[in-house]
Design a protein that fits this description.
By secondary structure, the chain is an alpha+beta fold. The protein folds into two domains: 240 residues, Orthogonal Bundle (Endonuclease III, domain 1); 98 residues, Nucleoside Triphosphate Pyrophosphohydrolase. It is 45% helix and 13% strand. The protein is built from 15 helices and nine strands. Strands 3, 4, 5, 6, 7, 8 and 9 form a seven-stranded mixed sheet that branches. A two-stranded antiparallel ribbon has the order 1-2. Helix 1 crosses helix 10 and helix 2 packs across helix 3. The longest helix has 18 residues. The termini are far apart.
């Protein structure tokens, strides 16, 4: 990471700024944080994991009743392992993205087969389980166990990116921006509760340092914020110049044969959550699981936002498999597609 230069403020040994930021952030959180959320303060890793998987691509207020019902039905990992997949999917019905529920069930089954009744408590062991990537592992460890593990989601990237603003000093340097974000988060943990710092960063990004129309005038961090000092917030991109394109959280693929597009009963888009793998691997796994086909996925042709999340767009080709679940779209099929599906097809030059 020596090739990274952190602009006007944060240095590896600059404790003063991070101490001030952490103090102001926690003061704001203790007054305005979303402490009413039922998973806040939860110390059971299983319950935190359930909340995190449900919150992927689903609004917070919508998740609350599902979370409560789920825990009444499956209060422990052991109870979940004993349940049938049909019961699990029925309990998830209405939240969408059923791959999350299947991953949770597979995870419970895997632990049960090993004689384990609880989730492991290290990052490496957690990330080896189905459906758990770097963010989810960090969230479980910090929220449930108060371990000093960063949980870098879109809101946290935005807040740290704007307040500390990074730039790259060499044009071809190879680096992971999330590594640098994590190093900043770890400094913020100093003498503070990781659980509370991560919760505060997420809530601050959701309520104050928002993607669009951030509340800079009322922001308690503005005197420490590099982006604000440099002339205000760019609301279209995080002002983390080394991270000018957010890492995709969703991979969207369109299966095509030449200019012809395949559709299924779910429409024309393959939409995969990216957690613990890359976009192309996630799309291949989705096609295999839901459509029983193997596909080739080309590198991202474009990037956009989808349901408020950064997304990469890919053209995909059918290799082999059971094609009963998909078919070539007719002109009528294409006309009836939702607008956002048509927008994706246009970007990929397939419409």
């Amino acid at each position: 990471m020596s090739d990274l230069n952190l602009d006007s403020g944060f240095r590896r040994n600059d404790d003063k700024k991070t101490t001030i930021v952490a103090r102001k952030l926690l003061a704001w959180f203790r007054k305005h944080g979303r402490t009413h959320l039922p998973w806040r303060g939860e110390t059971d890793p299983y319950r935190v994991l359930v909340s995190e998987l449900m919150l992927q691509q689903t609004q917070v207020e919508r998740v609350i009743p599902y979370y409560r019902r789920w825990l009444k039905r499956f209060p422990t990992m052991t109870r979940l392992a004993r349940a049938s997949e049909t019961d699990v999917l029925k309990a998830w019905q209405g939240l969408g993205y059923y791959r999350r529920a299947r991953s949770l069930k597979k995870l419970a089954d895997k632990l049960a087969a090993c004689g384990q009744k609880a989730l492991p408590t290290t990052r490496a062991e957690l990330e080896a389980l189905p459906g758990i990537g770097a963010y989810t592992a960090g969230a479980v460890l910090s929220f449930a166990l108060d371990q000093p593990e960063p949980a870098i989601d879109t809101n946290v990237r935005r807040v740290i990116g704007r307040v500390f603003s990074c730039s790259v000093t060499r044009p071809r340097v190879t680096f992971s921006v999330d590594d640098d974000l994590q190093s900043i988060a770890r400094v913020l943990f100093n003498k503070n509760s990781p659980r509370e710092i991560n919760s505060a960063l997420m809530d601050f990004g959701a309520l104050v340092c928002t993607s669009r129309a951030p509340k800079c005038d009322a922001c308690p961090l503005k005197t420490s914020c590099v982006a604000f000092k440099n002339g205000g917030i760019d609301t279209t991109t995080v002002t983390l110049r080394a991270f000018s394109r957010p890492r995709p959280e969703i991979a969207i693929g369109v299966l095509r044969e030449g200019k012809k597009v395949y559709v299924s009963k779910h429409g024309a888009l393959l939409i995969a959550l990216i957690d613990g793998s890359d976009a192309r691997t996630s799309l291949k796994a989705l096609a295999r699981e839901y459509h029983s086909v193997e596909i080739a996925v080309r590198p991202a042709m474009a990037h956009t936002t989808f349901n408020g999340k950064p997304a990469s767009l890919h053209r995909c080709s059918l290799l082999y498999g059971n094609t009963k679940a998909i078919r070539i779209a007719t002109q009528r099929d294409l006309r009836r597609l939702p607008k956002r599906s048509k927008d994706v097809l246009e970007i990929l030059k397939l419409l």
